[in-house]
Amino acid sequence: MLIIEVDGNHHAEQRRYDMARDTWLESEGFSVMRFSDRDVLTNLMNVEEAVWLALTASPPPQPSPLKGEGVREVRSGRSKRSEQGAS
Questions:
Q1: In 3-state terms, what secondary structure has residue 34?
Q2: For residue 80, what is the enclosing H or E element?
Q3: Residues 2 and 54 sit within 8 Å (Cβ to Cβ)
Q4: Which of 4, 13, 30, 52 could form a disulfide with 25 if both were Cys (CB 3.0 to 4.6 A apart)?
């Protein structure tokens, strides 16, 4: 869930909008990487390496277990879920 954005010079004028947008995207679980169009045109290998490192830095998040699934904490032979009552 990686978003790569290539910005031209006009993005300097909408920095506040971009920051708000990035904050919202990150709250939805996305990662945002921004590169200048100049970097992409003149330094593509470094841009590619940065993207590759971002993609391989950590494993993707696992989806949340469905209700009732997943690991349960066991206490005195009973699961935590059974102590709280099944929902």
A1: strand
A2: helix 80-84
A3: yes
A4: 30
